[in-house]
Amino acid sequence: MEARSQKSILITGAGGSLGLAAALEFSARGWRVFAADIDTGRLPEGVVPVEMDVTNTKSVEKALGAIEEIAPGLDAVLHLAGVYTMDSFVEIPEETLQKMLDVNLMGVYRVNKAFLPLVRKAGGRIVIVASELAPLDPLPFNGIYSMTKRALDSYAHSLTLELDLIGTRVITVYPGAFGDGMTKGAVRSMDRMRETTRLYPDITERFRKIVVSQTGSAKDPSRLGKRLVRIAEKKRPRRRYFINTSLKLKLFSALPFGMQAAALRLLLKGKEQ
Length: 273
Prior knowledge:
The protein is an alpha/beta fold. The chain has helices spanning 17-28, 57-68, 94-121, 143-164, 181-196, 201-213, 221-233, 247-254, 257-269, and strands at residues 8-12, 32-37, 48-51, 76-79, 125-129, 169-175, 240-243.
């Protein structure tokens, strides 16, 4: 076991576009990066690959044991593991909804519960990446993902207050669109929904066009990676950061509920005959 000269970080979801970008940025800054994912084949050189399924407690504990053999502590745990889909609440398969909750919410819980002792040994911090959608009113067909992120936001809020009492900082980041992974995923989800829905065939076609029109607002994932490095290295970081959030979504969420519903009917159904 070596001396504490190099900072260490665990990144979940390191095989995704945001996770890869973050892993590269932290590694470039000299951090030892434990890059965790189910499939470690996509991970870049210069990181320590860690096979971990955040939905499986035994897998998380096995990853903990492997990291403990290398690092005496963790200066940061960065949560980027997540899954995304668009569907309606009355048609989504139960197993799909369960998986989203299991990864997006319970996965964060499992990893924090297991790795907190290593974080405390190093006087480190926990960085939870939620979504710009978490504090906003959800849109139709995106409400399933928003629900998981809003639940994550509530978890992060309580965890921040609890761990603050014992001197461990928790930081929640609310990013907007970065990279084309989520925007393309949204389009693919709408395509799948169009093929299976019995209730919303015409509406999903209109909604898909809106999703496609918004894909250009996504920023380079490396920009988020660089920002996450600065947050992890900041001596006195804030507890919340909003990055590249959408003004349109903020304005929509500020509307009274009745006006939201009327605007969506006009957009997605057109003028009633």
